[in-house]
Amino acid sequence: MTPVDKGISQGAELAAGVLVFFLIGLGIDTWLGTVPVFMIVLTVFGVVGYFVRMYYAYNSVMAKLEKERSEKSRGDQA
């Protein structure tokens, strides 16, 4: 997967996830008559959840790259 494909995929995932939580919140608000409480709360929840997920994915990739780099540098010293 190229970096452009990965970026487009992540952007679409963010937009779709936020839209789903927005619509669920809107549905709950309409049902309970509390517009826009759940809509706002669930939209923020979706955005924060996505960024937390991206944070852990980034840390995982960086740990993998650091491990590969340290193994390569140990191999060069031998």
From TrEMBL:
The chain crosses the membrane at residues 12-32, 38-58. It holds the Pfam family ATPase_gene1. Keywords: Membrane, Transmembrane, Transmembrane helix. This is Unannotated protein. It comes from freshwater metagenome.
